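User: Can you predict the 3D structure for this chain?
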Amino acid sequence: MSFAWQREFTRLGSWLILWLFLGLLFGHVMTWLFVGSSLYLGWHLLQIYRLSRWLRDPKQLELPDGTGVWEDVYRAFRLLDRRNRRGQQRLENMVSQYEASTAALPDAIVVLDENGHIAWFNEAGVTLLGFRSPQDIGQRVVNLIRHPTFASHLQSGDYGRDIEIPSPIDSDYRLSVRIIPYGEDQRLVIARDISQQKRLEQMRRDFVANASHELRTPLTVLRGYLDMMAEEATAKGPLQPWISPINDMVRQSTRMGNIIEDLLKLARIESNAGSAHHETVQVPALLNKLVDEAKAVTGDAHAIHLEAEEGLNIHGHLTEIQSIFSNLIQNAAQYTPAGGDIRVRWWSDGAGMYFTVSDSGIGIDKKHIPRLTERFYRVDPSRFSRTGGTGLGLAIVKHALEHHGGRLEITSEISIGSQFTCHFPLERLRRLA
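Assistant: Here is the predicted structure, written as structure tokens:
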């Protein structure tokens, strides 16, 4: 027992003895003891009332000085109050530092509560999203960012990918938006200005398209002269001694023409994002045609098998869908040795639609797979010179798939073969009776 409590019990005993003596002196002992106890209790109630007032408003009122055990109680509260004030000051400093650091970020950061209301945003939220402080605190974010892509993405709960939307304050600015869930159903919205990146990409696409288009004319002239020279280099022709370099020039000019055509095709696919005319593409008939063409080119070199689910069609752009399928089938034919098997399959499992090309070719090292869809990426440069590939086929496949909400999955093992699988979303399914 502390000294303060010992002193309090001593005081209580002395107080009761005093009132007992007065009762014995004047009579009515119990009455005098009741009065003394009531006064003692009233004094403690007064201390409780003073403490209660201070607890209700500790910033405005001073904690009173007490005597006896209340002196200990008030001292403990003062220590606790000082400790809490120091902790609060540390938290305020941390919040100030956090706000200062986020204010320096070029990305807009918005904190949403479990109901999608805005709890906080940084200064970039004002410049990029047009939010106002403090008027927009507590507002539903979909009332301020009204783009349907953002609203559906926020509602979906699938935040594994970023989305692109125009800025609410200027449609010329493009924003990349990522949503990160955390805590108790709270979400963090991060918006980044990618307008400059998009402009640079558009400039690159325009340059490639214009350069490719301008190269077609001189290349056509060169091909015309090379064809004439090739005729003169036949047996007993005047250019017969030059037949080998002439044929080599013809092959390389043909390859250059294919590269230009693929560059133009890729530029058209990129520029038509979201604006291409879509229709119901009858995939089984298209695959039968492409497989027959591949068989005609390869002859008996490969065994090509087709398995296509009848009536399973896709809503999309015919030219782009055909580019996806033909590029994957041609790749399998090019990189599969004679006598190998190529299997082409088109099917649905109720969750999506899939196009798969499997081969028993030379295979690809796993370290190269993540970069296969890059323009002109070469696993083995010598292989391109032998096969005449342009290095753009898988880039075309990737971009065309993205236009249809799909993705490309690649698996491969050296000396065993490769498998290319295109995943299409189920909403593009069209079945014909």
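The radius of gyration is 40 Å. The chain is about 50% helix and 20% strand.
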